[in-house]
Amino acid sequence: MDQLKEDFKKIVEIAQQDKAEVELLLSNQENLILKYSQKKLTKFESTLSLMAGLRVILGSKQGYAYTENLSAEALFRTYKEALNNAKSLTSVPGESALPLARPQSKIPRLDLYTPVEIPLEKKMEIARSLEQACLSADSRVDSVPYSGFSEVVSTTRVINSAGLDQKYQQNYYSGYCYPLVKSTDSSKMSGDSFFLRSFKDIDVEKLAQESVHKAISRLGAKKIPTGNYAVVIDREQFPMIMAMFADYLSAKKVEEGKSLFHDRLNKKVSSELLSVTDDPLDPCSPAARPFDDEGSPSQKTPLIERGILTHFLTNLEYAKKMQIPHTANASRSPSSTMDIAPSNLVISQGEKTLQELLTIHEQVIYLTHFSGGLHSGYKESTGDFSMPAEGFLYEKGLCLHPIDQTVMSGNILDLLLNIEELGCEYGKPNQSMMSPDVLIKSVGFAGI
Amino acid sequence: MLISSHILQKVLEAALSTGADFAEVFIEDTYSSQLNLLKQKLESALVGQLYGAGIRLFFGFEVIYVTTNDLSESGLIKAARQAAQSRGQGTAKKSMPLQAISFDSIHAYGEKPWETDRNKKIQWLNSVDQNARARSSQVTQVEAFLHEKFQKVQIANSLGLMACDERAYSRVGMEVFVENNGVKESFSERDGNLDTSEIFDRINLKKMAEDCVDRAFLLTTAKYAPAGEMPVVIDNSFGGVIFHEACGHGLETTSVAENVSVFNGLLEKKIAHECVTAIDDGTLANSWGSQNIDDEGHKTERTILIEKGILKSYIVDEMGARKTNYAKTGSGRRQSYRYAPASRMRNTFIAAGTDSFDDMIRDIDFGLYAKNMGGGSVTPSTGDYNFQVREAYIIRNGRIEEPVKGACLIGRGIDTLGKITKVSKDLKLATGMCGSVSGMIPTCVGQPQILVSSLMVGGRA
Q: How far apart are CA B77 and CA B70, in angstroms?
């Protein structure tokens, strides 16, 4: 018997008496993390997290509560807490009732769950070999401070009082290694990672080689003079730039007055070379999902087409409130409130190879690493950024030297307008954003 | 007590059944509440409960960690056996009889979050909005939040330790958006305590809101910061994030024991200018980063990290002590039972010095006065760090002059420590959230005003 469904039916009966609608988001995740250091297993974590988040809708108000106890008693108590939270909000006259997702006949089929029984020893071998493969790749590898392997199996389920009950499962493997390399006068750390849905696709040697190459290529880095430079931002780093404007695409942020794109619908927001789509249907992406976090079927949504902003991302509430198309981008976890977020942002490819991009200007910075996160250098309310970075200085298409700690500064709106060319290749689908290499005409860099 | 010692004893025996030489159970029951105000009304309300256990085993230097939401006797024993069988095939070891450690809590709190009248909390948030808008008609948006957490923990280990604690956390935050002659800006502030929310009757929320408005306005008139190397005076309070990033993380045995910290092997060596004394103190009453006991059950303490430039101690947790033989410092911390503990900072600050702030400024021909800091990050293996400057001013000819914006500071920790050449008398602490291997935890950073003789400023070229 599906006990959760039976308990939810009873909650719905009570909700009807309260004149409320109710939605339950269930997340169930099993995670195995393995880490070796100096040939010894230093971390073996097997964690199971199970959480239910309830959203109760009272007209135009919604309250939230969550619990890790899935007994009928705890779920009922959680419902009451969410109801009380909804009651404590202020009603706005004229606001209409919030919608719930209705049962859908057409949910996209995505191949996200392919369980294969892999012996534990094989997984441990992967984790062990990540460190070993780095250490044996080059004599300059001093140690591998960070390496690890993890396996995740998760289930997401949405049930609501409109009769919707759907779930999907997924499993994936991920790993990373960050070797520390040393020369007589310099030490650098860099690395790479993988995200795969099939265990047999894991290639430890390749990952280690790429990681070691990235770290070694940074040895002997020098400061550059302060100034404005053309810059090619690497395909695996440009997602940091995408993360800067991702929130501006949210209809919720627009309505709250926090999006710098608020008045730009159907207007130019970037170079005409840039086209951006939200694609939750690519099974290779970590962000793939057949439906969003309120149960609406996922869809591909063009957001920026040849520089023109064509859509904002919405959930049911904001599509209705703002009278704009619904894009199924509801985003929340059981322990958070409802938000709107992209699933898998993809920038369309251009036509140039990386080497061609590096030869367009006499001198260009090839930016291969942002050293900090957005929290240490980006202000969303203005679009201003000062991002610590590393990379390489190129002249006439040839690498002169790696660049030691610099800072790239500017404004995201200017940067988008200054995109000069796009590369023709994508990186690995390790993130929920995909981009080719991107050439920016001119950006400021701090140095000596 | 969440679980009887009788049951925990059985759980520890099950955990040691395959040869582990140490076992620990961490039980947690946490109530959380978040209220958010936006557009002059309560925008969202969320409450929830975390309820689970983490079981950790050591086989020498190997760490096994499993979690469960089933806190019944059978559920806990099942999880302990799973942990034991995942690695061990050896002979069972015995757990010592559990003995509860006692302590007098120095962190008194008032009404629990669910006992306090919600209308009172909403009034605090409304007052933030009202005071900000009263300050200026050009305020376009105000966002405010109140987060509360009441965490009950129980820790038992195979060495016979058993400890329980209750921790009340309250934090308020706000962001004010303004528009001045077409230029939009915002400024945010946070404050929090290891205490229940009555603290907000004592915190001057009106002043916080007005300061946010004033600073946001200041930024609308500010030009962009220059780029390049220059002397930098960093203000007290959240300015201490520079020590947190440049040095603190590199002193955690999480890095040191793995031999990946630039501060490894430097105990009793000079690593900073002699004007620098730095402390990590988990015992400050009701301070945001304090605890009675850490998440491994050990009493927290005040740890002198650097004394007059000499490295005196690392930040040491249970596994760190095992690997390095340094004494534990009561620094094993974690976000929740979902994370294994790791050595982490608590309230970390540079101690008051003897220099005068005015003298620092007076000696500079051209430099930056970094008055208000933002977030940052560090790579402990290289010491490379960076952090955002939210409010800054140009120092010119010994005077603080025009405001500038858009700056960040970057450097290498061990270099920067040597370049702190002056430390003022005016120590202040500020609250933050620190993210690392064992999750996001509350920490305080702090310092008096300091002079860094040369630092890379990331601004506009």
A: 10
Choose among A47, A90, A409: nearest Cβ to B227.
A409
Which pLDDT value is given to residue A125? 95
pLDDT attached to residue A231: 98
* CB hemisphere CA count around A259 (13 angstroms): 23
* Contact: B386, A372; criterion CB under 8 Å: yes
Domain boundaries along the sequence of chain B: 228-458
How far does A219 lie from chain B, in Å, by closest CA?
A: 12
B453: burial class by Cβ within 10 Å (0-12, 13-18, 19+)?
middle
How many angstroms separate the CA atoms of B334 and B65, rounded? 13
pLDDT tops 90 at residue A11? yes
Chain B partners of A405 at a C-beta cutoff of 8 Å? 384, 410-412, 456
Which residues numbered 109-148 in A keep a CB inside 8 Å of some CB on B? Answer: 120, 143, 145
In whole angstroms, what is the distance from residue A329 CA to residue A317 CA?
Answer: 11
Q: Per the CB < 8 Å rule, is A227 touching B224?
A: no
- pLDDT at site A376: 77
pLDDT in tens, A303-358: 999 999 999 999 999 999 999 999 999 999 999 999 999 999 999 999 999 999 99
Residues of chain B with pLDDT below 70 are none
Residue B86: predicted pLDDT: 84
| Residue where the block lists tokens 């409304």 | B126
Amino acid at A137: A
pLDDT in tens, A38-91: 888 889 999 989 999 999 999 999 999 999 999 999 999 999 999 999 999 988
Nearest-neighbour CA in chain B from A351: distance (Å):
31
Q: Could you tell me which residues come within 8 angstroms of residue A19 by beta carbon, excluding any fewer than 6 positions away?
A: A58
User: What is the reported pLDDT for B297?
Assistant: 97
Please give the Cα distance from A316 to A229 (Å, whole number). Answer: 44
pLDDT in tens, A197-212: 999 999 999 999 999 9
B307 CA to chain A: closest CA distance, Å? 28
Q: Phi, psi at residue B54, to the nearest 5°?
A: -115, 130
Reported ipTM: the value is 0.90
> Using an 8 Å Cβ cutoff, are A182 and A46 in contact?
no
Q: Which of A230, A223, A218 is nearest to A410 (CA)?
A: A230
Scan residues 88-107 of A and list those with Cβ closer than 8 Å to B: 88-90, 92
Q: What is the mean pLDDT of residues A130-138?
A: 96
Q: How far apart are the first and last CA of chain B?
A: 59
Task: Give the pLDDT confidence of A108-125 residue by residue, as tens digits.
Answer: 999 999 988 999 999 999
Whether A88 and B38 lie within 8 Å, measured CB to CB: no
Contact A31, A43 (CB under 8 A): no
Look up the pTM and report it: 0.92
Query: Within an 8 Å CB–CB cutoff, is residue A176 touching chain B?
Result: no
